[in-house]
Description:
Structural class: alpha/beta
CATH architecture: 3-Layer(aba) Sandwich
CATH class: Alpha Beta
Radius of gyration: 17 Å
Number of strands: 9
Bound molecules: NADPH dihydro-nicotinamide-adenine-dinucleotide phosphate, 2-hydroxyethylsulfonic acid
Number of domains: 1
Helix content: 40-55%
Amino acid sequence: MKKTILITGATAGFGKATATLFAKNGYRVIITGRRKERLLELEKELTGTGAEVLSLNFDVRDLAAVKSAFENLPSGWKDIDILVNNAGLAVGLSHIDDGDTNDWDRMIDTNVKGLLYVTRTVAPLMVARGSGHIFNISSIAGKEVYENGNVYCASKHAVDALSKAMRVDLLKHGIKVTNIAPGMAETEFSIVRFKGDNEKADAVYRGVRALTAGDIAEVIFFCSTLPEHVCINDLTITPTQQAGAGYLSRK
Ligand code: NDP
Ligand code: 8X3
């Protein structure tokens, strides 16, 4: 029987690449995100290759919308084998005494509360079946802090802690939990962080062969296709030119 994967934030970056890779490998794919047009475009692209795809258009920060999306799942789509908690963002870069509290709310509401809302809704379906695999996309910002990264780093440290907590709480149900902590990856991430300033976003990757969204998708695929008795709990992945948040060798 075909397996089903649910990916939050599949309209761009890691989420889109993961949906594409799993669809190519015969999985049934549930894609989610706020930008409906992009969701429908991806749905069309993947179904055109013969994949079974369901798109759900909601904002992970909206608990009622999250609940309603999953309560109304068409029959046959409730058996979710893999959940990838990927939807997330960094907004702004500033010192703690100078930060924009709206940016802070967006990051905490999306990266922490949104991840919790989706997990709270989907995990019981896995518990009922006694199996499942949850991936939480944290970051090297969940392992270290860097100047001006304060609240984004705090939100990703929370994801790191939640991955450990979920692993413990879901242990007796046979559910795997894998924390993925990527370093610099070229997606729409920096465009969002710099609020649409493409020049600033491009400068982030200058002289570095950054990770691609496809690299992260491959890592998720690898972790999810290991034998039943093997669980990768935590993985940090950086470009070869990056040794940590503060160590980059630009060429
Ligand atoms: P992108 O900006 O390319 O993609 C982010 C995705 O998240 C989009 O599909 C977006 O969809 C979705 N999203 C954002 N906010 C919401 C929301 N409120 N509700 C639903 N979906 C939302 O970035 P990445 O692919 O790079 O980022 C994916 C994850 O990886 C994030 O959690 C990020 O923090 C993390 N990460 C990224 C790294 C990088 O260097 N790129 C490194 C380490 C971690 P839409 O706007 O349509 O809702
Ligand atoms: C994204 C990586 O280093 O910009 O989470 O925080 S970093």
